[in-house]
Write a structure and sequence with these properties.
172 residues; alpha/beta; 4 helices; 8 strands; globular; binds NADP nicotinamide-adenine-dinucleotide phosphate
């Protein structure tokens, strides 16, 4: 689960080392992509170009509060068009959720960094992919051509670790 049943990411799911891993990753991409409820709210967020998915616009709209952001509706324009409008047609991209946005890009990821906190339970919460918990995220990756890559322990006391799932044909 990436959030609880009310759509909030609770403090029980927040870990310092995971936050650092996430921040470092986003500092290395040209564009951040997320649904309307998944802004990462980090110190460097204001520096990042971003695509915000919403059905409230036909295809694109400028974000009046952020000149680096573009509202995008995939029903009205392709991802390639969105990157071009944002001025980053060949940029590296970090997709940060939520559920439907993670699922939408399953055929495009080079790598998906999946962090797990084994002792946290969020009954009825928002899953990382729609098929979860019917299938585990690992089963979803395997069925979509990913293989299990590097595992890094982020917080040994809490058992939090991140596994970098990679496309079989690509390397990091
Ligand atoms: N633990 C984690 O790693 C993690 C990762 C991501 C998110 N989260 C948490 O999860 C919660 C939000 O999850 P969520 O799944 O509700 O949020 P979300 O994907 O950020 O937002 C959902 C909204 O995004 C837009 N959207 C999504 N898919 C779309 C599509 N295919 N086409 C057009 N618009 C689309 C829609 O906006 P409109 O309503 O404007 O049409 C939809 O209501 C937050 O608490 C966030 O902090 C946690």
């Amino acid at each position: 689960m990436l959030a609880n049943a009310t759509g909030i990411m609770p403090d029980s799911l927040k870990f310092e080392a995971d936050r650092h891993f996430f921040e470092r990753g986003l500092d290395g991409v040209d564009v951040v992509v997320h649904g309307r409820h998944s802004h990462e709210r980090q110190p460097h967020s204001y520096l990042r170009r971003r695509l915000i998915l919403t059905r409230q616009v036909p295809a694109f709209a400028a974000d009046p509060s952020n000149e680096k952001a573009l509202f995008w509706n995939p029903a009205g324009a392709s991802f390639e068009q969105a990157l071009a409008v944002l001025g980053t047609p060949d940029g590296s991209v970090g997709v940060i959720g939520g559920t439907d946005v993670f699922g939408m890009f399953l055929d495009r990821y080079d790598v998906f960094h999946l962090s797990r906190a084994p002792d946290v339970r969020l009954p009825g919460g928002r899953p990382v992919f729609r098929d979860v918990p019917t299938r585990t995220p690992e089963e979803v990756f395997a069925s979509r051509g990913f293989h299990c890559g590097q595992r890094q322990l982020l917080d040994s006391a809490k058992g939090v670790a991140v596994v970098s799932w990679q496309r079989s044909s690509k390397s990091l």
